[in-house]
Write a structure and sequence with these properties.
The chain is mainly beta. The protein is built from no helices and 23 strands. Strands 1-14-13-12-11 form a 5-stranded antiparallel β-sheet, with no helix packed on it. A 5-stranded mixed β-sheet has the order 2-15-16-17-18, with no helix packed on it. A 4-stranded antiparallel β-sheet has the order 3-4-5-6, with no helix packed on it.
């Protein structure tokens, strides 16, 4: 996402919340988590082509019941929402890209169109994304689109409006998942009075665009690796496996310091209780000088074509040094690789893999 130089009067995309707190109040938001492949999966995913899609950041890939992979992501111009689909993951590289919605010329949803996610809920398609008014480009909030057509490339995308949280503050990166019959929204938001950019919050949902009950702060930037450049926790995504719920998120500025953290909760615990979640004291996925991949983050998960192997989806750059604001650099490319699992049942992210070597060159 992007940031202007003179923003001292408002929280930017890189604000982080400190401490653990519970803020009561009714909210408005939307409803899903990835289900990990069975633990006995033996087939290997790949080989994958990397980068998968050039200049597409904050990628989201979901495999629908029709067997197709649906892809959306942030475009460098921050002015539209795109979709691709393919029978295979590698096929997304060359799949036709359709613009399904454009930013408004004026007023709300007019600037900084960031981090769309496509979810199928209750027989309809929903896209959650962040945007700001054209006249106030840092007043970023979470918005929802709905399409009742079985094919998200057809039908009409209806603007369901803003997801209302406890405060009218900088908020973005909404994701949704369902756990044991209850749908949750997790997102990043700045809390008034806090000396940070964004923390991670969770709430139950009354509808795909409405929150209900309290919103609970799950994580705030507290470790050094979460506070480089900006104090940020953002880009959450959930994965359920082996009696646990894992929640990944991204931290720090969007240059080579950007990295992935991990929260873990027992599947039998109350996900609305911040004490149910344990934070890894170290990042689980970081830049790597050997493979020349920098700033890996804003990940999601999908499943391989075998229907069994878990796949990590994320963006990264191929170089470390950036001139100017890294959010104005367009070369955050979508990448994918197999997600491993450790003997203790926790995800093994490994390192961001090197670019694919084209044997034909």
């Amino acid at each position: 996402m992007s940031r202007e130089p003179d923003l001292s009067h408002i929280p930017s995309r890189r604000l982080m919340l400190k401490g653990a707190a519970l803020a009561a109040g009714a909210l408005a938001t939307v409803p899903g988590t990835a289900q990990a492949a069975p633990a006995d999966a033996t087939e290997k995913a790949g080989p994958y082509v990397n980068p998968l899609v050039l200049q597409r950041a904050d990628p989201h890939i979901t495999r629908h019941t029709d067997g197709l992979y649906y892809f959306t992501a942030t475009v460098p111009e921050y002015d539209r929402i795109i979709l691709r689909r393919s029978r295979t993951l590698n096929g997304l590289s060359t799949a036709t890209e359709s613009v399904i919605w454009r930013a408004h010329a004026t007023g709300p949803m007019g600037a900084h169109i960031w981090a769309p996610e496509l979810h199928r809920i209750g027989g309809k398609w929903y896209i959650y994304f962040a945007s700001a008014p054209a006249e106030d480009v840092w007043a970023i909030r979470i918005w929802v689109l709905e399409n009742s057509n079985a094919d998200p490339f057809n039908g009409s995308w209806v603007e369901r409006g803003q997801i209302r949280t406890a405060w009218e503050t900088f908020s973005l990166d909404a994701t949704t998942f369902k756990h044991r019959g209850t749908r949750y929204l997790v997102w990043a938001q700045h809390e008034p009075g806090m000396d940070n950019n964004t923390a991670l919050w969770i709430s139950k949902m009354a509808s795909p665009w409405t929150l209900t009950g309290p919103q609970v702060r799950l994580s705030t930037p507290e470790f050094d690796w979460e506070c480089v450049g900006y104090k940020v926790n953002e880009g959450p995504y959930a994965l359920q496996r082996g009696g646990r719920v894992f929640l990944t998120y991204s931290a720090s500025a969007t240059d080579y310091h950007y990295c992935v953290g991990l929260l873990t909760a027992d599947a039998d615990s109350d996900l609305m209780d911040a004490r149910s979640w344990t934070k890894s004291p170290v990042p689980v996925f970081t830049s790597n000088d050997t493979t020349h991949q920098y700033g890996p983050g804003h990940n999601c998960f999908t499943v391989a074509e075998d229907g069994r192997s878990d796949v990590l989806v994320y963006h990264a750059r191929q170089y470390k040094e950036i001139t100017g604001d890294p959010l104005h650099d367009p070369n955050r490319h979508t990448r994918i690789q197999k997600l491993g699992w450790k003997p203790d049942g926790t995800p093994d992210f490994g390192v961001p893999v090197a670019d694919t070597v084209n044997e034909g060159v």
